[in-house]
Amino acid sequence: MSDVRAFRAALAWMVDDPRSAGDDACVHHPDGLLLIEDGHVAAAGDWAMLSPTLTADTPVEHLPGHLLTPGFVDAHVHFPQADMIGAPGGPLLDWLERSAFPAERAFADLAHARDAAEAFLDELLRNGTTTAMVFGSVHREATAALFEAALARNMRLIAGKSMMDLGPEGLNETCEEGQADTEVLIRDWGSRGRLGYAVTPRFALSSSDAQLASAGALLARHDHVWMQTHLAENAREVALVAERFPDRDYLDVYDRFGLVGPRSVFAHCLHMTDRSLHRMAQAGAAIAHCPSSNLFLGSGLFDLARADAHGVRTALGTDVGAGTSFSIPCTAGLALQVARMRGATLDPLRAFYLATLGGARALGLSDRIGGFETGREADFVALDLAATPLLARRLSGATDLADILTALMILGDDRTIAGAWIAGVRRHQR
Ligand code: GUN
Ligand code: ZN
Q: Which region holds residue 424: left if phi is over 0, alpha if psi is between -120 and 50, else beta?
């Protein structure tokens, strides 16, 4: 017996990048029907057209005043930093020492990591994030605890333990330990359920040449894994990388160790050469744009138009705990504002694309998630258009999708997420 359920509400999803496809990129049904069968989308469209095809025994959940969209994709977030959002310190290198590293040291304790993993996944779902690419601490067991908790929820999570053989006291490892622990995690978790593994050299400054080479070798050995790291986030960081590698630009440091490819995601990319952007586009590598973090640490204003001009794929990342919110819609709202500060305009439908299908494409998962095409995995959220008194007033009578989405990005947060479904199963109810 298959499990079939229907939802009646407004529906919106992207089928392409509005930058290239224009108005055809978006599908919007103000009175829609989403039909789920065994965890996958069986149909999505207009209620009046599709409802006559429902069998009499199909349960229908009616959600008036709600907008159903694909679940959000957070392409860059730190598991061991969830409990220290808004901690003092900055810019980047000072904040790492003062706030991030002390929080991460606590993940040597497995009981703490297990408890934090449940809270972290709860928070992702409370904010409508159904897929995330996650940085773990240096600890293998803590990262395994996160995978275990995500598997129990059937969540689509790509994660990796940070590799850092030049890490600070208490978060250090040898190159050999970093490699062996990563191998074990790839073996144990990299192909289970909806999980994926990302080889995770923290950034150029926290790994020796030998460790960067070992990360490249791991990628070459396991073609199903991803790679995540930080790139050109902060002026001082960039200067220190240039001191250590005087003959290369920052991306080239990673490139020469085999870390730049179609499954590589680089967070930030604020201080980039044209050569680097060109090379990223050529390699099919992606950027995780993290505006709340960039504002919190004063790192800089990402130039999306320039990345677009080079044809580099971009996704959104919260970068919690330097990021100030778990909400990807809120992060998209800040992306709109950062574009403004650069004298550019980010179309709200494009911001919605980055939060959903664009994020899925950046992670190479758009054949499975990010839209409501038949056969996609049924990871979706219900956005309550009257979640707060102000939103209710702002959106009363609104019909234009760009207007609705802009208001949700500017005024919305976890209160807007009435529910989140993972493979058709409700995993969050506000
Ligand atoms: N660069 C290296 N580590 C980190 C981190 O934890 N957060 C941010 N924002 N940048 C980093
Ligand atoms: Zn980060």
A: left
Domains present along the chain, CATH in parentheses: 4-70+371-429 (2.30.40.10), 72-326 (3.20.20.140)
Percent of the chain with pLDDT over 70: 100
The per-residue pLDDT for range 298-338, each reduced to its tens digit, is: 999 999 999 999 999 999 999 999 999 999 999 999 999 99
DSSP code per residue over 183-234: HHHHHHHTTSTTEEEEEEE--GGGS-HHHHHHHHHHHHH-TT-EEEEEES--
In sequence order, the β-bridge partners of residue 287 are 266, 314
Residue of 78, 85, 94, 96 to test ligand 1 pocket, by largest number of atoms within 8 Å of CB: 96
In this predicted structure, the answer to whether residue 1 has a pLDDT above a threshold of 90 is: no
The residues lining ligand 1, judged by C-beta closer than 6 Å to any ligand atom, are 78, 92, 96, 100, 202-203, 230, 233, 293, 319, 322
Cα of 93 vs centre of ligand 2, distance in Å, is 12
Confidence of residue 381 (pLDDT cuts 50, 70, 90): very high
> Does pLDDT of 59 surpass 90?
yes
